[in-house]
Structure to design on (146 residues):
């Protein structure tokens, strides 16, 4: 049975809603490719969001620092980690689903030919008081774009 493939554009999508929708598709057996990961939006006050993610970056387990959770500053890996949080990671079906996820910054040339699905979402500027994109968050966390 061939698995379905989805290519989803993250532009102006709210990250949490996008991640839960993606996790549901992955658990149903589909493979998902997310493009323009740096343009996904996180709703809330910007200072609170940045402080929350800085705290996640600095968390170190005193007993065994090597086993501390890892959060990347790169936009594509940050989005991938958020999707991973929506999956049952400690079960085999969650790990298998996670292997079928690909996240890209921008739109790769090999995906330009495929039909990219644009999810119907709220206009983030009208729906939320303040938002920050994943790309802006990555820059505030210290990620330097080449």
């Amino acid at each position: 049975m061939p698995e379905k493939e989805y290519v989803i554009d993250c532009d102006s999508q709210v990250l949490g809603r996008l991640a839960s929708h993606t996790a549901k598709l992955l658990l149903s057996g589909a493979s998902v490719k997310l493009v323009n990961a740096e343009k996904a939006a996180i709703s809330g006050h910007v200072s609170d969001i940045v402080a929350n993610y800085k705290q996640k970056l600095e968390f170190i387990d005193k007993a065994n620092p090597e086993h501390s959770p890892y959060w990347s500053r790169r936009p594509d890996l940050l989005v991938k980690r958020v999707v991973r949080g929506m999956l049952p990671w400690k079960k085999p079906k969650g790990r298998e689903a996670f292997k079928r996820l690909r996240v890209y910054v921008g739109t790769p040339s090999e995906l330009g030919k495929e039909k990219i699905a644009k999810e119907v979402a709220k206009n983030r500027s009208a729906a939320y008081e303040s938002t920050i994109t994943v790309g802006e968050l990555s820059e505030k966390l210290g990620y330097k774009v080449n």
Q: What stands out?
A: The mean pLDDT is 89. The helical segments are 15-27, 46-58, 75-85, 92-99, 124-127, 134-141.
